Amino acid sequence: MRRPIIGITTYVDQATWGVWRDLPTTFVPHDYTEAVTQAGGRPVLIPPHEDTDILTVLDGLVLAGGPDVSPELYGADPEPLTVTRPGRDRAEMLLVRRALDLDVPVLGVCRGMQLMVVASGGSLHQHLPDVLGHEKHRPAPAVYGEHDASFVPGSRIAALMGDDLAIRCFHHQGVADAGKLTVTGRAEDGLAEAVEDASRRFALGVQWHPEVIRDERLFGALVAAAR
Amino acid sequence: MRRPLIGMTAYAQQVQYGSNDLVAGMLPMTYVRAVHAVGGRAVLITPDDPGTDVIDSLDGIVFSGGGDIDPAYWGAERHPATEVDKERDESEIMLMRAALEADLPLLGVCRGLQVMAVVGGGTLHQHLPDIIGHDRHRAASGTDPLAADASAYGRHDVITEPGSIAHRLIGAHSTVNSFHHQAVDDPGSFTATGWCPDDRVIEIIEDPAHAYAVGVQWHPERTADLRFFAALVEAAAKRSGLKPQAFAA
How many angstroms separate the CA of residue A41 from the nearest CA in chain B? Predict the structure, then answer.
């Protein structure tokens, strides 16, 4: 039987691998494909393209992490520490809007969650340490900040997470205004960690990185919604 | 109407970008741009997955370049210069069988052509310099052998068999880039329809009984000549009742 096919958005950057140095490459961390496979889905990577008709073939969508979302998309000027990839933003904004319109199940991770927020009329903080006064959401390069989140009773994310509230974050931007989405999870400092749209089949964004532990609670729920 | 969806086999390996160093599913953007430029929609298929059911969702597939195939697949001992990629071998041999079985339009590029030959019951030369006495089929990585100021190293002619798909697509003769040290010895169930005239190394194989099953030993995705990609996307569109849509449209 065919497994649900789950598209994962990708990075496009100069990458060095094998004998190649700084070659324009499209890629996504292996953690994402492994998390989808382990949850029973069939991952495919979808490089940026203006085309969104691919959503008529996909059963579900993972919006992967990555660089900052262009502030122009939520009506702000870029701040000094904001690093963007406008081509990827353009393609992924079209994709997330169409996915929500078509009610294709969507899981947004980190940048992916922020894209969902911006596509839903919300806005972002461009550098959290300026707002929160601490660096607990990105403690050091390649170090995840570990938090216990709290979830809104009755929300999808509360049901999925159960009693284990530990999350692993790595981001310097965060949700300021969730727009039409509902904030259903927060860190100790009050920062939005989960957003949802309960009117959709499955539209969940998380600020942390569930793919790192192949979290079947979240990826399994996406795949189940995609069946 | 949607664009034909073209799967592309991808690498899963260690990648460095910026200050990051991680294992990633990945492919050079040249492949992606080639498919998009001729009206297809590219998706990457990583080798870390146990199944072939993705074939059912695709309109066509590209088997991409990469490392050497384990000679155990055609019953040979491993040459010292052979560097295999076990995960890709297992995944791509399985996908190639499934794609041929489903008659999914497919294009093999470099290693991809070699996967075709091996799955077709053929064999490879493991190190061309041993056979032909020179290494001119392997350009230095990162170079463009077709650039106007490039040396002839890594560039050569290809002649095609009259009446073949290759001949219909590119005519009797073309000049190509070259980045390989292995090559097809016996194409198995496929027919060789293009050669390097200098040393008779097989450069194109095909099976006209399929909707589109063509392999090329060079890298057309790194050139402006995308006729083999365009023919793949056309065959994919025809099979699925779609139309290729130009990237600019």
Answer: 10
Domain containing residue A109: 5-226
Task: Please give the DSSP secondary-structure letter assigned to residue A90.
Answer: H
Per-residue pLDDT reduced to its tens digit, A89-137? 999 999 999 999 999 999 999 999 999 999 999 999 999 999 999 999 8
Nearest CB to B46: which of A12, A13, A33?
A33
Q: What is the pTM of this model?
A: 0.95
B174-186 pLDDT tens trace: 999 989 999 999 9
Chain A residues in contact with B38 (beta carbon < 8 A):
none
Are B54 and A42 in contact (CB < 8 Å)? yes
List the domain range (segments joined by +) for residue B30: 5-240
> By the CB < 8 Å criterion, does B84 face chain A?
no
- Please tell me the distance from the alpha carbon of residue A207 to that of residue B110, in angstroms, as a whole number: 41
Nearest chain A CA: its distance from B63 CA (Å)? 15
Whether B245 maps to a domain, the answer reads no
d(CA A63, CA A96): 8
Q: Whose structure tokens read 């009506």?
A: A75
Least confident window among A30-39, B86-95, B152-161, B231-240? B152-161
**CATH code assigned at A195:** 3.40.50.880
Tell how strand A60-63 and strand A5-9 pair up: parallel
Q: Is the ipTM of this complex over 0.90?
A: yes
